[in-house]
Design the sequence.
């Protein structure tokens, strides 16, 4: 970014070392805020995928952690998160982040940092949007899980001797995967349009 912003930044830099340190900290907070807001969108997708995974019966299957410090997520969560990142890269939406960083120099003055009220307002707005997004993405699986569990519960009342819950686990997973197969294009495009 330096070649694109060099003229703009050099006009505002003074020779004082304390001002330079403050400017570095202020610019780091602006970049961190932008990065955290993008990460919250991916966390919403991971939350929805984890909820879907639990509702279709994949909760007990261990997966692979995406980050070194994270705990293992379900295989469906890992698949959905990896696919979303690849689609973001394929569509060039990662360049939107670079554009947001460049535009941040016009929105916030160099060295001014993020005003606390404006930064918190932006962060709360993103959290509200992503909470609704994750609920919207998980809604078909919530409906599926409720419907299947009610049907299995009613059927289990008629055949008390047979544990239908364990007998139908494979069918519940299959139905969940078919649901994911049917809604995947709309599901991922809903996420991508919200991310964009």
Sequence:
């Amino acid at each position: 970014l330096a070649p694109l912003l060099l003229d703009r930044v050099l006009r505002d830099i003074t020779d004082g070392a304390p001002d330079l340190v403050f400017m570095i900290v202020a610019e780091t907070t602006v970049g961190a805020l932008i990065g955290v807001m993008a990460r919250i969108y991916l966390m919403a997708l991971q939350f929805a995928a984890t909820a879907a995974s639990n509702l279709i019966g994949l909760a007990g299957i261990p997966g692979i952690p995406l980050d070194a410090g994270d705990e293992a997520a379900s295989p469906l969560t890992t698949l959905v998160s990896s696919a979303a990142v690849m689609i973001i890269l394929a569509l060039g939406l990662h360049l939107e982040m670079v554009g947001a960083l460049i535009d941040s120099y016009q929105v916030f003055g160099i060295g001014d940092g993020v005003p606390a009220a404006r930064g918190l307002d932006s962060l709360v707005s993103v959290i509200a949007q992503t909470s609704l997004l994750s609920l919207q993405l998980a809604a078909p699986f919530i409906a599926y899980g409720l419907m299947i569990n009610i049907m299995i519960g009613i059927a289990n009342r008629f055949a008390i001797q047979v544990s239908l819950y364990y007998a139908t686990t494979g069918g519940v997973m299959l139905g969940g995967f078919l649901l994911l197969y049917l809604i995947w294009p709309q599901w991922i495009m809903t996420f991508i349009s919200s991310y964009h």
The chain has a mean pLDDT of 77. The two ends are 21 Å apart (CA to CA). The helical segments are 2-12, 17-55, 75-90, 94-107, 116-158, 164-167, 169-195.
